[in-house]
Amino acid sequence: MKQAIKIADQIYWVGVHDFNCRHFHGHMFPISEGTTYNAYLIVDQQITVIDTVEAEFMDIMLERIRSVIGDQPVDNIIVQHGEPDHSGGFMRFMQEYPNAQPYASQAGIQIMMKQYFKEYPYQKVKTGDTLCIGERHLTFIEMPLIHWPDNMMTYIKEDEVLFSNDAFGQHIASYDLYDDAHGQEKCLDRAKEYYANIVMPYGDRVEKKLNDIAAMNLPIAMIAPSHGIIWRSYIKECLAAYHDFATFRSKPKVVIVYESIWKHTQAMAEAIAEGIGRSGVCVKVYKESQTNSAIIMKELLDAKAVLVGSGCYNNEIASNIAGFLNRLATCHMKGKIGLGFTSYGWYRNTAASINQKLQDAGITLIREESVMQNYTPSEADLDQLSELGEQIAALIRNDEA
Ligand code: FEO
What we know:
This protein is an alpha/beta fold and 401 residues long. The model has no long low-confidence stretch (mean pLDDT 97). The strands form 5 sheets. Strands 1-2-5-6-7-8-9 form a 7-stranded mixed beta sheet. Strands 15, 16, 17, 20, 21 and 22 form a 6-stranded parallel beta sheet that branches. A 5-stranded mixed beta sheet has the order 10-11-12-13-14, with no helix packed on it. The chain contains 12 helices and 22 strands. The chain binds MU-OXO-diiron. MU-OXO-diiron binds next to helix 2.
């Protein structure tokens, strides 16, 4: 029988491990080691559950609940977010506990109705509303568009626990539920990957919400997100990292993303990287079609510069690079510089098209002139590209100084 895991006095983790998940929220976020859908049980005078899990795992969640409360009924279900990884089991939950009172934000109620076509007696809550469940008081904090319109957090002041829903999540699937079991570096790295792939477009809102939470002066002993481990030892570091993510705080780092059939554009990418690298600036080089896109997004988050290369395909940018540039345009990046480059045969506009798309994504061009190579770069051409890399590195180092 699956059992609940106690995380505080009368508070339990009743979530599930999805060890086999390799694509989170579709193919755009490949992950390597699975994830968790975290749900929580609070046993007070009113028994309360926070969130459910994906529908296919609901039997496990129910077993974990019953391992603590047996056949007792549940009084309240808090719906922090209507996305199916947290609400897919909700209707099943209501079948098992038909007298449970569901609570959700206005946006949450609308999303639940539109997804599941079934009315429930939702009690609408908003930021600052408090629900007394006995010895504990649950305070709700809406966080719209981090990353759906309805995301909401719940804070218990008596236990100083913040149930943060998708915020501060990461993909670590483990029975060691706490951050300190995995080490600060791994936890922050996974949180960065999660943020870059799910939350990055909403940085302004994240920054405002972080400020709002700070202004509320809530003592926080534990942050319990909806994915991955629970923060208790690195809370300060996690909040600081989120501030850096939200403001696109960058390092002296260049990310080069390219696609190439005959290795001419690849040779350009590697020559530019050579110049950057030998100048002492960190440079990451990725052939887009051979790289886990989640890693590219993670590395981009704190890079100062992004260089994008593509050969010419039917008078166009390679379709995977075009898709990558389209994704950049949704990320609302700030403070980054960039440049396009191409090895072309007879159609000359590819690099200019890349540059235009970089600008559309809010990225400042390093220079107006396109970086173009007709067919195979010679040794002299490659040396010039390495010099360009050195110039880009100098620009970044001057910006840091
Ligand atoms: Fe974890 Fe927005 O779902």
